UniProtKB/TrEMBL annotation:
The organism's place on the tree of life at top rank: Bacteria
Family matches, as Gene3D superfamilies: Exo-inulinase, domain 1, Glycosyl hydrolase domain, family 43
Name of the protein in its database record: Glycoside hydrolase family 32 protein
Species name: Halalkalibacter alkalisediminis
InterPro entries named in the record: ConA-like_dom_sf, Glyco_hydro_32, Glyco_hydro_32_AS, Glyco_hydro_32_C, Glyco_hydro_32_N, Glyco_hydro_beta-prop_sf
Family in the record: Belongs to the glycosyl hydrolase 32 family.
This protein's record includes keyword Cytoplasm: no
Length: 481
């Protein structure tokens, strides 16, 4: 254990709880000038345990104030993942005077003496901007007689049919329910058999509509997280489907697997809209860890952090529809000092010294004739992470084998890869924080989110080539003083 790991690994830009264990983001919602982030929280230890909903609020989604625990376990079980909505029209009857927040979450009752666990959906409501909550007396509001995996309700208002819609993870499918009032739910349809990856249990679904960039077309997107299965090398990861939704049934355009992130550390992410009726930006945030090693990562006193918030859109690339992720504009105001990297030809190595420990780098790289090229984040003199584009295979590889502490999991050593259409011209944005890298390639077309545990975030960044040259230009931004 590094002696100063408490301070060293603690992120500057990413949300992490002050102490103890955190996993999935829950109930993200914007209400009366505040962004709310609830999260899976174990207040009595730094490993996963009886789940509560932790709570934090923010004015800009970057600086968070952690508040008291929002939801505690009760006679129906511990509090698993779910969502929150503003019941603007008092459909539930909880808000006779003014609108407030409703949390829709899973109660998990652990099985005992040969009896299986039971998962049901429940409600709680708040009249004071999420500071205190009342559990609905009719809980649970939705259960299942036989399905053990029956969780993670994500609810939104479906304008076209004027109903609430719920997506629920039900084993290796997603089941959709509708409701007029958040209390009574009706089965609509089930999606998933034969579609996408079934490497593990399906978790944390999220269904929403997005505009296709530069067109009038709209697409429905269904995000589905896939739990860790020890038979495979990936650990937990996130896939998505693009298609249509008619108020009852989701139809996917494709059976193939589309990954939301090619790094190992973006899981259980869900999105929300920052304007009522789903009309605002679609903002996504994921849990920056992997179930394969989340309980072992070498932080002390606290465990886990969230990704930076990302704005989602859909881009048509050839015949394919891709979910695009861009860091929200709010991040820019945290980086004021900008140093240009003037257009140059690189052959070998070009180093940019970094004065502050965390950086936001934007680079355009154009291959002239290099076989391989990329960037190295020098966390310290000995510790580094490399990002390499291999032109012969058109792949991008993120290698964190020398990035600092790595020995807590075999899977942490494996390279993270993505196949690109081509590597002749690539654009990248990279944010380096104390213990993570968030890499977005080609204006958000590919995302690689990766934890690292170096002694320092970053001392220098170098651009490198192998067997040939590239053209490079861009800038590095440093945090406000
Ligand atoms: C996903 C998940 C959810 C569940 C929660 C429990 O990471 O397994 O399916 O609700 O974590 O903490």
């Amino acid at each position: 254990m590094t002696i100063n790991s408490l301070a060293t690994y603690r992120p500057k830009l990413h949300f992490a709880p002050k102490k103890n264990w955190m996993n999935d983001p829950n109930g993200m919602v914007y209400f009366q000038g505040e962004y709310h982030l609830f999260f899976q929280y174990h207040p009595d230890g730094t490993t996963w345990g009886p789940m509560h909903w932790g709570h934090a609020v923010s004015k800009d989604m970057i600086t968070w104030e952690e508040l008291d625990i929002a939801l505690y376990p009760d006679e129906h079980g511990t509090i698993f993942s779910g969502s929150a909505v503003v019941d603007w029209n008092n459909t539930s009857g909880f808000f006779p005077d003014e609108p407030g927040l409703v949390a829709i979450f899973t109660h998990h009752l652990e099985g005992t003496e040969g009896k299986p666990s039971v998962q049901t959906q429940s409600l709680a409501f708040s009249h004071d901007k999420g500071r205190t909550w009342t559990k609905y007396e009719g809980n649970p509001i939705l259960g299942h007689d036989t399905k053990v995996d029956f969780r993670d309700p994500k609810v939104f208002w479906h304008k076209e049919t004027e109903k609430w819609m719920m997506s629920l993870a039900t084993g290796q499918t997603i089941t959709f329910y509708s409701s007029p009032n958040l209390i009574d739910w009706k089965f609509e349809s089930e999606f998933g058999e034969g579609f996408g990856s079934h490497d593990g249990v399906w978790e944390c679904p999220d269904l929403f509509k997005l505009k296709v960039e530069d067109s009038d077309e709209e697409k429905w997107v269904l995000i589905v997280s896939i739990g860790d299965n020890p038979e495979f090398d990936n650990g937990s990861f996130t896939q998505y489907f693009t298609g249509s939704f008619d108020g009852s049934t989701f139809t996917s355009d494709h059976e193939s697997i589309k990954l939301l992130d090619f790094g190992r550390d973006n899981y259980a992410g869900v999105s929300f809209s920052d304007i009522p009726e789903e009309d605002g930006r679609r903002i996504y945030l994921g849990w920056m860890s992997n179930w394969r090693y989340a309980n072992q990562v070498p932080t002390e006193g606290w465990r886990s952090q969230m990704t930076l918030p990302r704005e989602l859109s859909v881009r048509k690339v050839g015949e394919d529809y891709k979910v695009i992720q861009r860091l929200v504009g709010e991040l820019d105001s945290y980086f004021s000092e900008k140093v240009d990297i003037d257009e140059c030809i690189v052959e070998g190595t070009k180093t940019v010294k970094v004065e502050e420990s965390y950086v936001d780098l934007t680079l355009n790289l154009e291959r002239v004739d290099a076989e391989q090229f990329g960037i190295t984040v020098h966390h310290t003199i000995e510790q580094h992470t490399t990002i390499t584009f291999d032109s012969s295979k058109n792949v991008l590889v993120l290698d964190r084998k020398k990035s600092g502490q790595i020995d807590f999991s075999d899977m942490f050593l494996l390279d993270q890869e993505v196949k690109l259409e081509n590597t002749d011209k690539v654009q990248l944005r990279l944010v380096v924080d104390s213990s993570s890298l968030e890499l977005l390639v080609n204006d958000g077309e590919y995302s690689l989110t990766s934890l690292v545990y170096p002694d320092k975030a970053c001392e220098a960044i170098s651009i490198h080539t192998f067997n040939g040259t590239i053209k490079a230009a861009g800038y590095v931004s440093f945090p406000c003083k």
